């Protein structure tokens, strides 16, 4: 399940110094994905597996210093019960809060984690207009369910939008906005060309587009705090 571990990160858990656990496998294929080594079989097969026991030892060693644990991927929720068990062990054995990153494709698992009270923070990627999820291999019905579950805990959720021009046009944003009512935090993330799944280099948006997007969100979602990661 786990192919990577970073002992200390200052940027992955809002307001906390955290360790980061990287799971492999993903059920989406976003062209701008830069986690190729966790998504493409020929790549992740080259990486060695890290056991959950090893990870718990590493977390335990750092417990005085780190204030949280981030689980990211790939798509961590594809690991189902095994992921839930890992989160339970971190929560009960190590006693650290956990943030989970997801593409939103497993609403049942998110519901279970919230119901058990073992998730401190959830980051959900909102990739494109609902009508276009099929282009990245996703089923928006599931993502919509996840968004509806997450809405009940807005203070514990961040929605992340990566501004990859072919998937996030002004029209796409307008079609995404109705699903974002009642959330508290929305992060705008810059797409960075480079070593991505799609080999064609597409230039990112200019600052003008972000300003336009911010104005759009302020108009239709005035209650939301926009976090800029440009
Ligand atoms: S959901 Fe995340 S890990 Fe999966 S392909 Fe998209 S960007 Fe990559």
Structure description:
It contains eight helices and eight strands; from the N terminus they run ββαααβαβαβαβαβαβ. By secondary structure, the chain is an alpha/beta fold. It has an eight-stranded mixed beta sheet, with helices on one face. β6, α7 and β7 form a beta-alpha-beta unit. The longest helix is centred in the middle third of the chain and has 15 residues. The two termini are 31 Å apart. Bound molecules: iron/sulfur cluster (SF4). Iron/sulfur cluster binds next to loops.
- Contiguous uncertain segments of 5+ residues: none
According to DSSP, the number of beta strands is: 8
Name the shape in a single word.
globular
Strand order of the largest sheet: 1-2-3-4-5-6-7-8
Helix % is 25-40%
Total number of helices: 8
Class derived from helix and strand content: alpha/beta
Largest sheet at a glance? 8 strands, mixed
CA distance, first residue to last residue: 31 Å
Q: List the domain count as a whole number.
A: 1
Percent in strands: 15-25%
Per CATH, the superfamily is Aldolase class I
Protein name: Anaerobic ribonucleoside-triphosphate reductase activating protein
GO molecular function, one term: metal ion binding
Pfam families: Radical_SAM
Organism: Thermodesulfobacterium geofontis (strain OPF15)
């Amino acid at each position: 399940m786990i192919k990577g571990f970073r002992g200390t990160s200052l940027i992955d858990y809002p307001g906390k110094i955290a360790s980061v656990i990287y799971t492999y496998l993903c059920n989406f294929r976003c062209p701008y994905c830069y986690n190729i080594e966790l998504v493409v079989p020929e790549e992740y097969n080259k990486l060695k597996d890290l056991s959950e026991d090893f990870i718990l030892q590493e977390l335990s060693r750092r417990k005085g210093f780190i204030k949280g644990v981030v689980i990211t991927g790939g798509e961590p929720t594809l690991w189902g019960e095994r992921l839930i068990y890992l989160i339970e062990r971190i929560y009960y054995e190590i006693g650290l809060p956990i943030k989970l990153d997801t593409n939103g494709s497993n609403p049942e698992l998110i519901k279970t984690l919230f119901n058990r009270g073992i998730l401190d923070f959830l980051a959900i990627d909102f990739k494109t207009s609902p009508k276009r999820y099929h282009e990245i291999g996703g089923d928006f019905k599931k993502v919509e369910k996840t968004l509806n579950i997450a809405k009940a805990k807005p203070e514990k959720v961040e929605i992340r939008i990566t501004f990859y021009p072919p998937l996030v046009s002004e029209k796409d944003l307008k079609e995404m906005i109705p699903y974002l009512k009642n959330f508290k935090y929305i992060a705008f993330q810059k797409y960075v060309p480079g070593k991505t799944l799609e080999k064609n280099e597409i230039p990112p948006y200019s600052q003008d587009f972000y300003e336009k997007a911010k104005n759009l969100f302020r108009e239709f979602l005035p209650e939301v705090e926009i976090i800029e990661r440009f």
